[in-house]
Amino acid sequence: MDEAKKILPDVISAIDTAAKKKLVHENNAAHKKSRIQRAINAGPPKKENNKSAPKKAAKKPERVKEVEVWEEKVKSVEESISAEVSADKESKES
After folding, report:
1. Count of helix runs (H) and strand runs (E) in the chain
2. Around Cβ 13, how many Cβ atoms within 10 Å?
3. How far is CA 59 from the centre of its chain?
């Protein structure tokens, strides 16, 4: 979770940039930022001390999966934004 907290400002910045460029709606961006922050602030799920229950295979909590999915989406948005910016710079230089 420490790594997630470290990249949170970059993720939020990328979402804001996507909203500013109208790639996602402003309300959608706000919703995404809120869900990511809630998932990070909630931390890992609490362990139960029920020793009689059979052990299950370790699964990633849904919140962690969701954060990973959003990180991937943010990376793709950042890549598309940087591609647009570089294309704009090249067209202005020509």
Report:
1. 3, 0
2. 12
3. 20
